[in-house]
Amino acid sequence: MSLDTVVEDIREEAHARAEEIRAEGESRADEIVSAAEEDAEATLEEAEREVEREIDQLREQRLSSAKLEAKQKRLEARRDVLGEVREQVEEELATLEGDTREELTRELLEAAGTEFDAGDDVSVYGREDDRELIESILEDYDGYEYAGEVDCLGGVVVESDQSRVRVNNTFDSVLEDVWEDNLQAISNRLFEQ
Questions:
Q1: Which residues are paired to 65 by β-bridges?
Q2: Where would I find the beta strands (DSSP E) of the chain?
Q3: 138 within 8 A of 146, measured Cβ to Cβ
Q4: Gap between the Cα atoms of 15 and 31, Å rounded
Q5: 182 Cα distance to chain centroid
Q6: pTM for the whole thing?
Q7: Which of 61, 66, 81, 153 is a good FRET partner for 116, with 20 to 30 A between their CA atoms?
Q8: Which tens digit of pLDDT belongs to each residue from 44-92?
Q9: Which residues face 25 on adjacent strands?
Q10: How many CB atoms lie within 10 A of CB 170?
Q11: Residue among 115, 113, 119, 120 at smallest CA distance from 165
Q12: Radius of gyration of the chain (CA)
C-alpha cells in the first residue's frame, strides 16, 4: 500500500466521518429546532389563553363598573325626584290657607293637649304667619297662651314647665313621620317597575 492510498483512505474516512457528523448535527439541529418550535407554539398558545383571560376579566370589570355607575345614577336621579316631590309637598303645606289650615292646626293642638294635665300653664309656639290663627284657636283653651314663633311650615309646638313636656306637632314633624313611614310606597308609585 502506497502512501497515496493510505492518505486517500484517511481522506475518505475523514469525509465519511465528517459526513456522518454533519448528518448527526443536522439531525440534532432539526430536533432542537422542532423542540424549540413546539415550545414556542405552546408558549404562544398559553400567552393567547392568558390574554383572552385578561380581556374577559377586564371586560367583566368594566361591565360591572358600568352597571354600578348606571345604578348609582338611577338612585341619584330617584333621590332628586323624591327631593323635588318633598319640596312640593312642603310648599303646599306652607301655603295652605283658610279652613283647611285652621282645621289641621286645631287637630294638632288638640293632639298635643292630651299630653298635659288640667291646670298646666301651656305655651304654644307656631309659624309667625299663623300667629293670629293660633291666638284665635287658643281662645277655646284655658291656660294656653301663644308664646312666640318657631320656624316651621305650620302646626304647633306645645310645652309646659309644670309637666316638663314639649310636643312638636308641626306640619314638618308630621310630614317627616309620614314621609319616613311611606317612603318605599312613594318611591314605588313614582318609579313603577
A1: none
A2: 122-126, 144-149, 155-160, 165-170
A3: yes
A4: 24
A5: 21
A6: 0.64
A7: 153
A8: 888 888 888 888 898 999 988 989 998 898 888 888 888 888 899 889 9
A9: none
A10: 23
A11: 115
A12: 47
What integer is the mean pLDDT of 131-139?
Answer: 94
Unique residue bearing C-alpha cell 287637630: 107
For residues 166 and 124, give the distance between their C-alpha atoms in angstroms, rounded to a whole number: 10
In the block, cell 345604578 appears at 71
Residue type, 83: G
Q: Cell 457528523 maps to which residue? A: 21
Q: What's the chain look like in SS3? A: CCHHHHHHHHHHHHHHHHHHHHHHHHHHHHHHHHHHHHHHHHHHHHHHHHHHHHHHHHHHHHHHHHHHHHHHHHHHHHHHHHHHHHHHHHHHHHCCCHHHHHHHHHHHHHHHHCCCCCCCCEEEEECHHHHHHHHHHHCCCCCEEEEEECCCCCEEEEEECCCCEEEEEEHHHHHHHHHHHHHHHHHHHHCCC
| Measured CA distances, 93 to 105, 131, 180 (Å) | 11, 16, 17
17's grid cell: 466521518
- Report how far residue 172's alpha carbon sits from residue 155's, in angstroms, rounded to the nearest whole number: 8
Chain position carrying cell 284665635: 136
